[in-house]
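anyone seen this seq b4? input:
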Amino acid sequence: MEVGAYEAKTHLPSLLERVQRGERITITKHGVPVAMLVSVAPVEKPDIQTVIDELKRFANGYSSGGMALSEMIAEGRR
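predicted toks r here
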C-alpha cells in the first residue's frame, strides 16, 4: 500500500495498526517513495541471571598477557 506524506501524518495511528498486523506501507512525497513502515521483530529479553552467570564465567576465564581481568581492572585504578 502507498500513502502520501500528508495522509500518513493524518492517519498514523491507523496505519501503525495495519503495520502491526503485518502490512507494509510505503510513504510517498509528491509520488516518490521516501519511507516504508514495516513491523519490527519482537526483541527477546535475555534471562538476567543467565547474563550474570555468563559474565562471571567470562571474567574468570579471560586473561591478557598473563594478567587476569580482575588484575587489569585493579591496574586501571592505580
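The chain has four helices and five strands. The radius of gyration is 25 Å. kinda curious what u guys think
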